[in-house]
Amino acid sequence: MVKMLKFEEPIANLKKKIEELKELAHSADIDMTAEIQKLESRLQELQKDIYDNMTPWDRVQVARHLERPTTLDYVKGLFDDFMELHGDRNFGDDLAMVGGVASFSGIPVTIIGHQRGTTTKENIRRNFGMPHPEGYRKALRLMKQAEKFNRPIICFIDTKGAYPGKAAEERGQSEAIARNLVEMAGLTVPVISIVIGEGGSGGAIGLGVANRVYMLENSTYSVISPEGAASILWKDASLASEAASAMRITARDLYELDVINGVIEEALGGAHHHLKQQIENIRVVLQQALSELMPLTKEQLVQDRYDRFRKMGEYEELTAIQTAEPIAENQ
């Protein structure tokens, strides 16, 4: 049973009424087909109305859903012969970052992604999907290996941010992320990144310097969490919903701003309701992206990545004539 979020409570209540009515019809041997069909029709309308009018804060809640599919869920459904590789060859193996080699539609690829848990025990083991420096160094090791063997790189982004603890800072958290940004910018193989849940701060961008960046419809991508932004701007974390709207962190917003290349649609209610359909939606996007990028030369791939980030924040400066108020004819 998928856990309902607060904004989904009207849907849950109506579903409960339908189930109760079905049980009553069965136990009392009464024909309530017409009543049940009427409620089911109302349920479809209610679901469409609620999911079509989700606020940015609603999407934040969906992105954080405990049952939302993780990197390894998508790896299992999208790729063949996945072999996970471990360790950064320096300190240790960070379970908050997973990676390895696999086959996608017959093409050898390298896969890297943040990995959170779905239970309390697993979240603790994987540090809630917040990597230490060795996680980013493992990711970079796999990226350089992919470049050596000319394999496309596919990254799955899903983290609240890089782990901010003392031990992580002592081992060079900032340097590890910065190194990834520099090295990813110059990779000579196709790089595709998909934000599947939360894309938080530098922890996300450490896998985000790609030729193509996509977001699932109910994912988020931001420099800080809504709670953090509200605490800084208004000294009140309870205003997180207002901050989420102001920050424009949803997939549709970021597509309009040219921060990402596309939005991958989710089934009604979110990816956690329809994993198989979500896998197929991602498969189509990956196939299209690879068909565009694989014919490019090494130099073209680097230039394509450079151009993509260079155009972010472009603006046009109006001249004095363009900004001047029109002069009325009778003046």
From TrEMBL:
* GO MF, one example: acetyl-CoA carboxylase activity
Which residues does UniProt assign to the signal peptide? none
For this record, the Gene Ontology CC terms, alphabetical, are: acetyl-CoA carboxylase complex
Q: Give the subcellular location.
A: Cytoplasm
Task: Give the SUPFAM superfamilies listed for this entry.
Answer: ClpP/crotonase (SSF52096)
Q: Which UniProt keywords apply?
A: ATP-binding, Coiled coil, Cytoplasm, Fatty acid biosynthesis, Fatty acid metabolism, Lipid biosynthesis, Lipid metabolism, Nucleotide-binding, Transferase
Q: Where is the CoA carboxyltransferase C-terminal domain?
A: 38-292
Q: Quick one: a GO biological-process term for this protein? A: malonyl-CoA biosynthetic process
Q: What stretch or stretches form a coiled coil here?
A: 4-49
Query: What's its catalytic activity?
Result: N(6)-carboxybiotinyl-L-lysyl-[protein] + acetyl-CoA = N(6)-biotinyl-L-lysyl-[protein] + malonyl-CoA
Task: Assign the protein's first listed, main location to one coarse class.
Answer: cytoplasm
Q: Per its database record, what is this protein's job?
A: Component of the acetyl coenzyme A carboxylase (ACC) complex. First, biotin carboxylase catalyzes the carboxylation of biotin on its carrier protein (BCCP) and then the CO(2) group is transferred by the carboxyltransferase to acetyl-CoA to form malonyl-CoA.
Indicate the family of this protein.
Belongs to the AccA family.
What name goes with this protein?
Acetyl-coenzyme A carboxylase carboxyl transferase subunit alpha
Q: Look up and give the organism this protein is from.
A: Lysinibacillus alkalisoli
